């Protein structure tokens, strides 16, 4: 018995060590710092490899894309991540809770209506038997009719309530679907919406070009002025890209990285639009809202690549992403194309 217990302990220890090793490999592969928040995220992911978090991570990293801190914040985990937009998370959690409560309420209403129908059926049967025994007394018929009308009205009221609840539930679910495709900070489309848009346009055979844009020296902005100011910079850049790339899909892909899907343009036309966006952003002079002190020049580097017919999203994104790295290594505030 002692030996069996020892074997169980050894087996449990070995499994724990294996999980620990896999967590370390995951953090290294994703180039994530081994801080408590990232470790907690990796633990939740790898401890349940078939769970919803694992499926979401697989979708995000398909094609060799690495996770960012913002991705981890968006996916969420039990341990709070520093810098997480609390109000956004609380709103999302409230929406989920409210939707769940409505679903449960709807179930309760349906259950009550079923019980009412069963009771009504038993009452009808009892009344019918009574009428047979009494030979069909008119008074009994009148009482039965009144009871039937009362129960029908009550059932109609409950059905109206159920219909109203269903309508509210549908509205909440539509809102949740919209939020699932929207970046909470900038209001732009998020990675999921961008990838879906690419797939839909590619399936139609539309001419496409993809740009990956990365804010230059963004870490220094956060280090010098804090994440609140950094978030303002990201929002301002998102607005600038949206204004100069009207008619094309602009999304925040994660962290300080934005993507643009140019629809119906060749490489030359897409580059002209993106160049106008680059110039417009670099020409602005940002200042701190609190002190009016100059924030300094904000620029972005970008990689731009056309999508060949039949190419999957990951292939085009990887090519544009490598071009973006080339632009940053080549001096920043420029665009590289292929």
Give an overview of the whole structure.
The chain has a five-stranded mixed β-sheet with strand order 2-3-1-6-7, sandwiched between helices. Residues about 1-10 and about 75-90 have low confidence and may be disordered. The chain has eleven helices and seven strands. The protein is of the alpha+beta class and about 350 residues long.
Number of helices: 11
For the largest beta-sheet, the strand count, sense and barrel status come to: 5 strands, mixed
**How is the largest sheet built, in terms of strand order?**
2-3-1-6-7
Distance between the termini: 68 Å
Averaged pLDDT: 78
Structural class: alpha+beta
Poorly predicted parts: 1-10, 77-90
**Over the alpha carbons, how many angstroms does the gyration radius reach?**
30 Å
Q: What sort of overall outline do the alpha carbons produce when their principal axes are compared?
A: elongated
Beta-strand proportion: 5-15%
What share of residues is helical? 55-70%
Counting DSSP E segments of at least 2 residues, the number of strands comes to 7
Secondary-structure element series: HHHHHHHEHHEEHEEEHE
């Amino acid at each position: 018995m002692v030996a069996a217990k020892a074997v169980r302990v050894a087996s449990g220890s070995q499994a724990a060590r294996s999980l620990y090793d896999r967590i370390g490999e995951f953090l290294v592969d994703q180039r994530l710092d081994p801080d408590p928040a990232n470790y907690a995220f990796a633990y939740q992911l790898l401890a349940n490899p078939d769970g919803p978090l694992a499926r979401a991570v697989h979708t995000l990293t398909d094609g060799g894309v690495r996770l960012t801190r913002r991705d981890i914040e968006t996916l969420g985990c039990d341990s709070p991540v520093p810098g997480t937009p609390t109000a956004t998370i609380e709103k999302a959690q409230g929406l989920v809770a409210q939707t769940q409560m409505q679903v449960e309420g709807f179930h309760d209403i349906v259950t009550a209506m079923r019980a009412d129908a069963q009771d009504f059926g038993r009452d009808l049967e009892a009344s019918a038997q009574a009428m047979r025994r009494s030979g069909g007394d008119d008074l009994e018929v009148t009482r039965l009719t009144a009871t039937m009308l009362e129960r029908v009205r009550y059932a109609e009221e409950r059905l109206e309530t159920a219909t109203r609840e269903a309508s509210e539930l549908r509205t909440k679910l539509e809102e949740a679907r919209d939020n699932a495709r929207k970046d909470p900070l900038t209001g732009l489309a998020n990675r999921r919406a961008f990838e879906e848009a690419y797939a839909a346009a590619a399936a139609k055979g539309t001419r496409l070009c993809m740009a990956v844009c990365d804010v230059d020296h963004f870490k220094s902005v956060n280090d010098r002025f804090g994440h609140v100011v950094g978030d303002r910079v990201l929002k301002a850049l998102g607005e600038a890209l949206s204004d100069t790339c009207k008619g094309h899909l602009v999304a925040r892909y994660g962290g300080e990285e934005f993507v643009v899907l140019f629809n119906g343009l060749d490489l030359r036309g897409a580059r002209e639009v993106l160049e106008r966006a680059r110039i417009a952003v670099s020409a602005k002079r940002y200042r701190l809202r609190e002190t009016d002190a100059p924030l300094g020049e904000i620029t972005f580097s970008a990689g731009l690549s056309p999508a060949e017919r039949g190419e999957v999203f990951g292939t085009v994104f990887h090519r544009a992403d490598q071009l973006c790295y080339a632009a940053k290594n080549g001096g920043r505030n420029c665009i590289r194309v292929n």
